[in-house]
């Protein structure tokens, strides 16, 4: 007992296997427990980093997908704009064609009226000629 006390005073201790130790058995046990807790904490941290990594990857994929959809939408919008412009151009061409045909119709109408007048005059002349005989 006295030898053990003297050793204890010198900071030396026997463990459960009667090996000479610098640390008290209780402190050694606490140290081992702390080491295990640290190992568990490091494992959990690594697992957390993995989860965060895969989350970041997922967010990146979503961002890329969103960017692709945005590009598709811009493409579709531009296509619609160009189609609208084509329609507008076609409409203007058709309006010009309609105006041209209206003018042509007016010329034909005047020509027809003139021919009708000539026909009436000729018929009148023929009638007078027949009656004179």
UniProtKB/TrEMBL annotation:
Origin species: Erithacus rubecula (European robin)
Gene name in the database record: Ift20
UniProt subcellular location: Cell projection, Cilium
Highest taxon in the source lineage: Eukaryota
Name of the protein: IFT20 protein
Any coiled-coil regions, as ranges: 80-111
GO BP terms, alphabetized: cilium assembly; protein localization to cilium
Record keywords: Cell projection, Coiled coil
Source lineage: Eukaryota, Metazoa, Chordata, Craniata, Vertebrata
An annotated GO cellular component: ciliary base
Pfam family, one: IFT20
């Amino acid at each position: 007992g006295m030898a053990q006390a003297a050793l204890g005073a010198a900071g030396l201790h026997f463990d459960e296997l009667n090996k000479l130790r610098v640390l008290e058995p209780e402190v050694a046990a606490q140290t081992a427990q702390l080491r295990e807790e640290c190992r568990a904490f490091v494992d959990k941290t690594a697992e957390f980093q993995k989860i965060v990594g895969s989350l970041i990857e997922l967010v990146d994929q979503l961002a890329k997908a969103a960017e692709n959809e945005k590009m598709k939408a811009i493409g579709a919008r531009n296509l619609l704009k160009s189609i609208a412009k084509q329609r507008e151009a076609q409409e203007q061409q058709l309006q010009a064609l309609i105006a041209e045909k209206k003018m042509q119709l007016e010329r034909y109408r005047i020509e027809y009226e003139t021919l009708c007048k000539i026909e009436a005059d000729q018929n009148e002349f023929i009638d007078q000629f027949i009656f004179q005989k």
